Amino acid sequence: QVQLVESGGGVVQPGGSLRLSCLASGFTFSSYAMRWYRQAPGKARELVAHISSVLPFTNYADSVKGRFTISRDNAKRTLYLQMNSLNPEDTAMYFCNAHPTNYWGQGTQVTVSS
């Protein structure tokens, strides 16, 4: 069955970095664009970053542009999100999604706090 498993979240101080991973199985990973979303308590889910399936095209929310980098390794069936210069407003549950499907992971929590 389809599985997306996120990992790499944790607690980090402001200005710190984290690298999230999303391991995919059960579908042809290389054929799908992939996205990272996040959802903070009491807020709507927000699209953070997008990467196309081929000739990787990337796009970012204005709030993370220049700080976050989305990438993928099709051979490893893995999606990544490198997050630098983190600030408390980045605190949220982060989810990966195969676009345009309803395939979602369970999420990984990122908390930025001093």
CA radius of gyration:
13 Å
End-to-end separation: 40 Å
Structural class call reads mainly beta
Separate helix tally? 0
Specify the helix fraction band: under 10%
Series of H and E elements: EEEEEEEEEEE
Mean pLDDT: 96
Strand content: over 45%
Identify low-pLDDT runs. Answer: none
Descriptive notes:
It is a single chain. The chain has 114 residues and is an all-beta fold. Helix content is 0%, strand content 52%. It has strands at residues 3-7, 10-12, 18-25, 33-39, 46-51, 58-60, 68-73, 78-83, 92-99, 103-104, 108-112. The strands form two sheets. Strands 2, 4, 5, 6, 9, 10 and 11 form a seven-stranded mixed β-sheet that branches. A four-stranded antiparallel β-sheet has the order 1-3-8-7, with no helix packed on it. Strand 7 and strand 8 form a beta hairpin. It is globular. The N and C termini lie far apart (40 Å). The model has no long low-confidence stretch (mean pLDDT 96).
Topology, please?
Elements: E1 3-7, E2 10-12, E3 18-25, E4 33-39, E5 46-51, E6 58-60, E7 68-73, E8 78-83, E9 92-99, E10 103-104, E11 108-112
Parallel strand pairs: 2-11
Antiparallel strand pairs: 1-3, 3-8, 4-5, 4-9, 5-6, 7-8, 9-10, 9-11
